[in-house]
User: What shape does this take?
Amino acid sequence: MTRNHRGSLIRPFPLPGSASRPVVTPLSPSVVYASDTPDALDDQYEGRVQGYTYSREGHPNASVVAAHLDAMEGATGGVLTGSGMAAVGAVLMGLLKTGDHVVGGNQLYGRSRRMMAEDLPRLGIGVTLADPGDIAAMRAAMTPQTKMILVEVVSNPTLRVADIRGLAALAKETGALLVVDNTFTTPRAFRPFDHGADIVIHSITKLLAGHSDVMLGYVAARDPDLAQRLMVFSVTLGLTPSPFDCWLAERGLLTFPLRFDRAQATAARLADHLAGLPGVRRVLYPMREDHPDHALAADLLGGQGCNMVSFEMEGGRATANAFTRAAEGLSFAPTLGDVGTTLSHPASSSHRGLTAQDRAALGITEGFFRVSVGLEDPEALIAVFTEAVAAATGRG
Ligand SMILES: *Cc1c(COP(=O)(O)O)cnc(C)c1O
Assistant: This one.
């Protein structure tokens, strides 16, 4: 083909050759992949050679991030999805069928809870929620149709800890799958497959990507057949994420261990500091000895904590308003795992759908805040909290 000819066709010019390789994964937004011949395509479809065809079925940027997460979780064949909720949906809707029953933790992430409360019953799938720290209660919630148990290791926002070992034994005994949403704990603190889980879910959006600029999810199954079913279901539904989001997430993952260690060390210090402030009624942090699940947390999390701290101030909504106003430089935003510290107020956000009475039963009052500790200088962060609590409560 002459040079002239190529210039008039609608195709990019070929990449220049390079004997050296980029050290950063190239971004590959291509939706389709061209093959040389039908024979070459056959080789690919029959698995004789590796290759991509259409990006809903997979693309290099997703493969790279999935391999990274697989290595962190001790998994193989993990699947990336466009959000954490897409991963939860793939598990609940891709593996359960009409007539099945699932037992969920009673403090699951709000949207997961909603999928269980509203979408599964519509499909004829039964749901019961129970306390995942109480094995007798979880056992009592099970029926002969229970195919799955879905829990988070550390709950939002009261940071209760699930008895994962007890749940793994219960799942094994009853033949149900144990599904663990490991978003809060991350594989840095806890690897569910090492403790008997069958399926692991992540919202990569949070700590793993870590910069609040990517939505992404991950799901991996220990059993290869289940892993294959999850892959096929997510391709069929089009849950595949965009290459750019995967590319950003990979960049975030490279600093994840450093960020996690720093944030959780600061969180431990902040928790202890808050506990000594006038106007603070209680502090919830699993690594503190006054936490109701301290022993379980120490056992499961191997000395690692998490970057989340919750605390309750004396006072009502006026105190809460004064606190977010006074906490200058901290974002009052309902997310977690960002490089900067963020505050969430469950009574007006994640738990606003509950009655005040139901919230009170969970210990969530107007003075209750959840803190996702970021990477600020710990001294500066502690100073901001000290001043904001004093300004809000009028004490200190
Ligand atoms: C945020 C979150 C999800 C949902 O993830 P998205 O990426 O926001 O869809 C699921 N589980 C937990 C524990 C979460 O914190």
About this structure: The pocket of pyridoxal-5'-phosphate is lined by residues 83-85, 88, 109, 112, 152, 181, 183-184, 203, 205-206, 215, 217 (CB under 6 Å). The mean pLDDT is 95.
